[in-house]
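Order emerges. As here.
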Amino acid sequence: MLIYMLATAMTVAMLIATVFGLHQEAQRIRAKASTKRFEGFGIRRPYRHF
């Protein structure tokens, strides 16, 4: 019975660690994306009239 309780506790601990890790990774990506400036939709060239 003790082995099952230990296995359950380890499973719960690993699930919590996984959720925490995913949250940290999402925060890092969000912070990295917010520092980028929006460059637009490609190269902007003025219209040339010939």
Observations:
- Residues 15 and 21 are 10 Å apart (CA to CA).
- The mean pLDDT is 83.
- The radius of gyration is 24 Å.
- DSSP finds one helix and no strands in the chain.
